[in-house]
Fold this sequence. Notes:
Helices cover 84% and strands 0% of the residues. It has helices at 2-19, 21-41, 45-50, 52-73, 80-85, 91-121, 128-154, 159-185, 194-221.
Amino acid sequence: MFRDASLMAGKDLRVELRSHVTTQQVAPFAILMLILFGVALDPDRGILTRASAGLFWVSVLFCSLLAIQRAFTIEAADGGRDALRLSGLDPAGIFLGKAAAIFVQLGALELVLAAGVVVMYGTEITGLPLLVATCLAATAGLAAAGTLYGVLAAGLRVRETLLPILLLPVLAPVLIGATRAFEAALGGAAADGWPWCGLLAAFALLYTAFGTLAFGTLLEES
């Protein structure tokens, strides 16, 4: 399973490195969102600083939708999805590999966005361990849930519009928990953010376990 996961993750990441979609399309979109938020709220720097955690995760959420759609679009042409079914790879390995590739892409984008929040919004990081743990747990949850729902929508003509409808309600707890944990890490009481980080870790483990078990059936039906 883990060998198949490494093969799938490597394949998806090589595709992204060669196509430059993440660096030339998704990353500029994320930075533009931060700039627009900053322009809209700049007259009141206090509100901008207090809202920086929520603005960060809203930007990550929209970027994750683009990354998840891209992860399944690359197999839509030339019978790639049928070839994936017939490849003999462990479905659990396919799930973990795709989720790992999305995790890596989102992690890179979060580094860029975090630097943008600190530079443009003047945010001060007071709880770095909590911030890192929150990013890891929330990103794992986004990647696992996104891969699971992405394969559900992959075989449909309206997958571009159906995926956000399916995914956004599910990711609402992640967005809320990550925002509250970030607020504690960015100038609040760091101890108050760890329970939210634990909730994010539980969400990630739940969707990773469910995806590992159910991805094969969903892939066959998509």
